[in-house]
Please model this.
Amino acid sequence: MDNYPTSWAPRRALVVSTWAVTALLLVGVVADVLTGDRGGLVLFALATLAVGAFATHSTLVRPRLAADAEGLVTRTLNGTQRLPWAQTRTRLRTTRRLGRDGVTLEIEHEDDLYVFGWLELGEDPRDVLDVLSTLRARS
Model:
């Protein structure tokens, strides 16, 4: 049996943490409603929506990326897409922002471009590309 993962998703601890933060922010919304603090209510409500949207997305689209001998499978809010190896191109892209390098995994399939960072994959995109390259070579 192979010793590498074949699917990637945001880390469970991160997803659980975002749900916990959403709950805490919701408590802030309720407190601001009860005290009549409209400024705090708006800020807490916006933060609750933003963190809650991330938590919902991270929960619903698991795993974000999977691979097997036939190709790749990506999950988005629009559904699941199968991408055969012969029709895909994978590469890493490094960008520098605010003095930090950010690495993303890019997958091209026909006219579609899928971009995954460490947050969506739960690990370094460089490691994921190594696994994908190995799987592609075996197929």
Q: What stands out?
A: Helices lie at 12-35, 38-60, 118-121, 125-138. The beta strands are 7-8, 65-67, 71-76, 79-84, 88-97, 100-109, 112-116.
